[in-house]
Amino acid sequence: MPASNIDLWEYAKFVQAVGRSLRINPATGTELTAAGTFYTSVLAYRPWLADTMYQNHPVTGYLDNVNSLGRDIYVMGRDLMKIPVQDSTEQGYCDTLFTATGDRKYGDMGTLTTADVDHSSGS
């Protein structure tokens, strides 16, 4: 039975937004740790996602390709649209991810990386 004390749609959309943000601008440090913990926890909680996830990184795990981790978290968010957050345990996984990633759930792309283009020096 889905959790009743939260906005289920909002949780799913926030997880999708965090995943998209992590794919575009990969996490480091505590964000990466929280994203990895979320990934492994939800994957254990939703075992039917395993085949989809292991197609991206079958042997070495998500740390070898953090962009793939972002894609997987996005897919988990899509799965939350189909099968909503089930209980307080799964809600706790989401809350921990949201706390660690800050405003990424609103579409913020996190801190700049070396791949980002600096647009501050205009002509």
Percentage of residues in DSSP E strands: under 5%
Number of structural domains? 1
The coarse silhouette is: globular
Q: Indicate the percent of residues in helices.
A: 55-70%
Please give a structural write-up.
The structure is a single chain. The protein is an all-alpha fold and about 120 residues long. The chain has one domain (about 10-105). The chain has helices at about 10-25, 30-45, 50-55, 65-80, 90-100. The radius of gyration is 15 Å and the shape is globular.
Q: How are the elements arranged and paired?
A:
Layout: H1 8-24, H2 29-45, H3 50-56, H4 66-82, H5 88-101
Helix pairs in contact: 1-4, 1-5, 2-4, 2-5
Summarize the model shown.
With 123 residues, this protein is mainly alpha-helical. The protein is built from 5 helices and no strands.
Keywords:
123 residues, 0% strand, mainly alpha
